[in-house]
Design a protein that fits this description.
This protein is about 5% helix and about 45% strand. The two termini are about 15 Å apart. It has two domains: about 50 residues, no CATH class; about 280 residues, 6 Propeller (Neuraminidase). The longest helix has 13 residues. β1 and β2 form a beta hairpin. It has about 350 residues and is mainly β. It has two helices and 30 strands. The radius of gyration is 20 Å and the shape is globular. A four-stranded antiparallel sheet has the order 3-30-29-28, with no helix packed on it. A four-stranded antiparallel sheet has the order 4-5-6-7, with no helix packed on it.
Length: about 350
């Protein structure tokens, strides 16, 4: 709905509706196949009070993330990651899995073997997870309820997996070849990572895969296809734990360093950003106009940002060791590895 309908409103709306079709004013959504309208321009309108954020704008959550509610889950396991897909949230941890249709009421999944399942993603009608240890280090499920494990080509310490660009891509902390790809999450092919760094997380945006590391000489690598990788030298030597992409920007969080956030428009040039809380930041995600990160320690264990550059610390309902966060169905869901009520939810209003 328009507010203050005046000449400035007319000019901005004319620009938005007539000019953004030009490639100069287009951005690419992480999970989309083509360009969409620039969320940056819409953010400017919202910030100027000339229009309001709504679900259709792609900025439905831009002013949210400040209210969180804790929920219990049935196992009290050491949870590490959570993902959204096929209308449900799915969490995995050390030898355990849970699922929920609303992020608040959880049930136990079956078939999750005894391993440290560090990362989970959804794509191509399948949930897929990778593990740092165990006999079989890949896990897959068509519904998040029943899981089947399978051996990875090499028993590296697999740390992160995503689905993007029509394939699954995983990265590892250890091994000779520290990348593997799969079209279906079942059959995997090893790929060389030119830098033997301890790769902790991988994401995809604007046609580019970007991975970050916690140890190593160079702690960023990029790839246009997930197969051939290029080492990038611009990242500070901090313990980078996770990376995401949204609104034309790669955003990574660290558990150490003078600042715990870095951003890049292209995966090559990186800029450190001021951190409201110098916590052990573990996970970061993006959804509908908002970046949200969670930490495993500190006073305020949540931080949010509408642009990935300026961040605000938020309090969590419990001082749990928050390890993973995802976005889906207009809400953020985080999962923890310790204490009671190991799930928290923030709904975009």
């Amino acid at each position: 709905m328009l507010r203050g309908f005046n000449c400035l409103s007319v000019l901005l709306l004319f620009f938005l509706t007539h000019c953004v079709a030009h490639p100069l004013f287009q951005t690419y959504d992480r999970n989309a196949d083509g360009p969409n309208t620039s969320a940056t321009l819409l953010a400017a309108l919202v910030g100027a009070g000339l229009t309001s954020a709504d679900p259709a704008s792609g900025l439905a959550c831009a002013d949210d993330g400040d209210v969180w509610t804790a929920y219990s889950e049935p196992l009290g396991a050491t949870w590490y990651d959570v993902a959204y897909g096929a209308g449900k949230y799915v969490g995995l941890g050390t030898g355990a899995g849970i699922q929920s249709s609303d992020g608040m009421n959880w049930s136990v999944a079956s078939g999750v073997t005894s391993a440290l399942w560090q990362s989970i993603t959804y794509g191509n009608n399948r949930f897929v997870s990778v593990s740092e240890n165990g006999t079989n280090r890949t896990l897959s499920s068509s519904d998040g309820s029943v899981w089947t494990d399978a051996p990875a080509p090499v028993n590296n310490s697999w740390r992160s997996v995503i689905y993007a660009g029509g394939q699954f891509v995983a990265v590892a902390l250890t091994g000779t070849e520290r990348v593997m790809t799969s079209p279906d999450g079942l059959s995997w092919t090893m790929r060389p990572a030119l830098e033997p760094s301890a790769w902790t997380s991988v994401t995809y945006g604007n046609g580019l895969y970007v991975a970050v590391a916690r140890l190593g000489t160079n702690r960023v690598m990029t790839s246009p296809d997930g197969i051939s990788w290029t080492t990038q030298t611009g990242a500070p030597p901090f313990v980078w734990e996770d990376i995401t992409y949204g609104n034309g920007l790669f955003v990574a969080v660290s558990s150490t360093g003078t600042e715990h956030i870095m951003t890049s428009p292209d995966g090559v040039t990186w800029t450190l950003r001021s951190t409201p809380e110098y916590n052990t930041w573990r996970s970061v995600t993006y959804g509908d106009g908002l970046f949200v990160a969670v930490a495993s320690d500190g006073t305020n264990r949540i931080m949010t940002s509408a642009d990935g550059i300026n961040w605000v610390g938020r309090s969590s309902p419990n001082l749990n060791a928050w390890r993973g966060i995802t976005y889906g169905n207009r809400q953020f869901v985080a999962i923890a590895s310790s204490l009671s009520n190991r799930v928290m939810v923030s709904v975009c209003d």
